[in-house]
Amino acid sequence: MTLAERARRVIPGGVNSGQRSIPGLTDLVITRTQGSRFWDSTGREFTDYHAAFGPPLLGHNDPDVAAAVAAARASLSLTGVAVTEGEVLLAEQLAELVPSIEKVLLTSTGSEATFHALRLARAVTGRRLVVKFQGCYHGWHDAVSLNVISAPDRIGRPDPTSTGILPEVLDATLVLRFNDVEAVRRAFADHGDDIAAVILEPVPHNVGALLPTDDFLRTLREECTRAGSVLVFDEVITGFRHALGGYQEVAGIVPDLTTLGKAIANGAPVGALGGRADLMEHFSSRPGGPVFFAGTYNGHPDVVAAASATVRKLREEPVHEHVFRLGDRVRRELDALYRRLDVPVVVTGFGSVFVTYFMPGPAPRSYDDLLANDASRFVGYRRRLVEQGVFELPLNLKRSHLSYAHTDADVDRLLEATERAVGAMLADGGADDLRHTSTMGGARH
C-alpha cells in the first residue's frame, strides 16, 4: 500500500486542506523542499511556482530563517503566559512598516486574523452588515465564506463555499462587484447606517490577479469614513509579498485594520491583525477589553523567529527588486510566447505574482470578466506543465508565484516548458474532465 493510499485510510481525502486534493495528482507525496524546488516520493523534481499559495517569498527552507528558528528553539518553548522579546520586536517592526498599523496582535492563521477583524468591527460599531466582493477570499469562517469562485448562475446571490452556514449569517454579508464604484456608493446609500465593515483583498489573488483602480480604493476609503464603517484590507497574500508596507503602501490608501499572513514568515504558520490603536484596544488582550481575543499558539517563539528573520531579510536584501524583475520578465515573455502561438490570452499579475487567463483582452477588472476564461485550457496546460517538472497549480484561476530563490534559468525553463505544454494542450483540446478543478464555491445551502 502506498503512502497516499494509507493517507486516504485515515485522513478524509488523504489531505489536510480542501485545496490540496488535485485531480490527477491524488497520489502525489512530497518528500523534500529546497529553494525554488520540491521533490516527490518517486524522486521527481519540480520547479515550484505554486509556492504553497504564496508564503515562501524567500524560497523553501531559507537558511537564514531556518537558523533563526533553530536559535529560538534552543532557548525558548511555548509558555502561554506574558510576552517574549521576539514578539515585541516583531510587533514594533510591523507597526513601523505597515502604514495602517499602530498596534498589532498575532494569530496562527490568516483566517483567524480576518475573523477577529470582523468581530471587532461589529463590536465597535454596533452594526450588523459586512461588505465583501465577489472573487475575494478571506478564510473559512462563516461571515465571509461565500462568493469566491462562483458559477455564472450563482453570481448576484449568496454562493457559500460550505454547507452548514446559517442563513442569517449569509444574509448579513453584502456581496458587491470588485472595482464597481457605483455599487459601493449604492450599498452605502441603502445600508450605510448598518455597515460595520468593508473587507477586501486589495488585489484579489484568489482568482488570479484583479488589479484595483485608484478610484475604487479611494471610494471605499471615503465611504467608510463618511459612514463610520471599518475598512479592512486583507493583505494575507499581498502583505510583504508586494511591498514591506503591503499593497496599501503601493496604493497610498490607509485602511483602519489590516490582516497579514503567508509571506510574513516565509511559510511558518503565523497571521497578524493590526490597525488603529483606538480599535485594537478593544481586544481582551488589554484587561477589560470587551472583544475576546485568544489563541494558545499566538506568538509562538518558532513562528515569531521565522517572521522576524523574514522581515529582516526583506529589509536588508534586494528581495523585492529580484522578484519584481523576474515577474516583469515572466509576464512580458509569456505574453510574447502566446502571441507567437496565436493563442488569445491575458497575462497579468503584480510583482512576483503572475497568471495567464485563456480569454481575449483587455485585462479583467472584476470576477464577471473572468467568466470568459477557458477553464479547459487553463487547467489543461498546467497539467502538461506538471508532466515536465514545472509546477503551477492545475486548478482554475489560481495564481503562480516567484521567490527570491528563483533564477533566470528557472524562468528559461518555465518558458520552454510552457511552450511545449501549450502545444500539447492545443493538440488534445485541453482538459476534458474539470470535476473538482474549480474550487471555493457552489455549496448548496
From TrEMBL:
Cofactor(s) needed: pyridoxal 5'-phosphate
Keyword Transferase listed: yes
Membrane-spanning ranges: none
One of the Pfam families matching this protein, by short name: Aminotran_3
GO molecular function: transaminase activity
Record's keyword terms, sorted: Aminotransferase, Pyridoxal phosphate, Transferase
Family: Belongs to the class-III pyridoxal-phosphate-dependent aminotransferase family.
Alphabetized PANTHER family for the sequence: GLUTAMATE-1-SEMIALDEHYDE 2,1-AMINOMUTASE, GLUTAMATE-1-SEMIALDEHYDE 2,1-AMINOMUTASE 1, CHLOROPLASTIC-RELATED
Name used for this protein in its record: Aspartate aminotransferase family protein
